[in-house]
Amino acid sequence: MERENPLRSYLNQLNQQYNLSPEFKSRVASLIERLSDLSLAPDQIKLLAGKVRDTYERQVLIETCREESKKSLQKIQGAINAYSNALSDINQRLNQAETALENVLKSAPAASKTVPEKGILPFDKEKARALMAFANMNSKNSRIN
């Protein structure tokens, strides 16, 4: 009757204790299987068991850090996308304001260069509003950058 390999038993115990990737567990199991044909002294088995535990503990750190890195990368990508969308929105509004300003300037009557006695012409009021809207959009854009 073949006796149970103590490293294989220890490996099963570690696999239950640590939640690691199947690829890692398979690689370690393959290495332990290769060692099962060798006649190892108890002190060698104890040394190998310690090395296997250390390897499992390092792998836990590696896999945890890998997951955290993926989460952080996703957060960064989300923030970049949000910033890019905000900049696109601002650019679109600036383009609309410029177009509105150009339309107001193009629709100006040529004969309204004289100032009437009552004050500001209606066209000048519209021009002033458009300029103020454009300046307001431009100042908001400079605060974001």
Describe it.
79% of the residues lie in helices and 0% in strands. It is mostly helical and 145 residues long. The chain has one domain (6-144). Helix 1 (6-17) runs parallel beside helix 3. The N and C termini lie far apart (76 Å).
List keywords for this structure.
145 residues; 79% helix; mainly alpha; single chain; 0% strand; rod-shaped
Short description:
This protein has helices spanning 6-17, 22-35, 42-106, 122-144. The chain is mostly helical. The protein has one domain (6-144).
Helix content class: over 70%
Number of DSSP strand runs: 0
Tell me the count of domains.
Answer: 1
Low-confidence stretches: none
Q: What summary fits the major beta sheet?
A: none
The separation of the N and C termini measures 76 Å
Q: What is the arithmetic mean of pLDDT? A: 82
Proportion of residues in extended strands: under 5%
Shape: rod-shaped
Would you list the SSEs in sequence order as H and E?
HHHH
Q: How big is the Rg?
A: 37 Å
Tally of helical segments:
4
Structural class: mainly alpha
